Sequence to fold (359 residues):
Amino acid sequence: MIRILAAGIVLVLGAADGLPHASFPPPNSILLDAKHKEPKNGVEQEGNTISIRSGVGTPTTINVLSFSRDAKLLAAGKDFGRVVVWDVPRRTVLCALSTGQGIVAAIAISPDDQFVATAGSSGDAEIKLWHLPDGKFVRLFKIGHPAVQRLVFGIDSSLIVAENNAVTSVLDIASARHTQDLPGEWAPTLSIDGTALITVSSTEVVLRRAGDWGEQKRFPKPTMYAYPLSFDTHSDVFIYGDSTSDPSFIALRLSEGETLSKPGTAKLPRLNLSTGYFVSLKPKSDLAFGHSGGRLWLWGVQTGMTCVSEVLYSESGALSADGSLLAGGIDSSFFAKDKIEPGVGLWQTEALRNACGVH
Fold:
């Protein structure tokens, strides 16, 4: 297992976590970054201890992944401000950006495939908009501290929804202005079909229409630390993370608040909101795909069946909007004798489900 300690980042070898992962198949294909001169990562080894100097990233780390709505494009946010956009059908790099944003931890592609929005850790908290496929800079959105945590595009590509400092903001691309602010609401999560938005406040879950952002429903938060991760209005399933519970991921019926997953039934790596993670429901199903603890997984939220990958030494994953493709960052262990070329694995989800026998 890997532990992260204070005073910089120190990774220490430890025991395996005992999670099942033998049946998780290898990816159907792998996307690779374009060859480029990578900056030094400041990694030092002493015995079995690796130290990474504070403020220094790791060049091959992928912090966040995001598909376009038609699954033709996939964007990756990396350290040192690098963003890579792939043409998925051709399995080639569409463009690579030097954003100057340090650790890029929020990224989104517009539904019309014309723009990619990025946010990172360097300088003033801001969102940058880039044109596709040429990767030209378009516009800067000043947000303010702290760094932007989430980015999603509205269904019509004209609006960006961002979270910063417990305020969810709707930004107009053309004017670079705030069209609406939702103070005291955070963790904006768009529904699988893009027609609704969920946020949370200190006490409630808020469901809104996408587009005019009008409020549809409020209900009490299931727990104090409930953090929205994915929901589907068609299957009526809402998944949230709770760092105080076991397991970390819990599913509810959105309409009734009925718990679908009982504590202890889903053997999944725990959610850690300070590292990379993702969860997404497959449309019109009770099957969820996710990433936590450096592993990819799938989960039948009603049956409790799970399938968990080997450690991928990564912090990222994404599911295409139609649920057909799962993407996950893959990196090498510092201690591995046989190094692999870091990249993004792609899995056909139906073949993955069949291989794992999860329903």
Summary: The first strand starts at residue 9 and ends at 12.
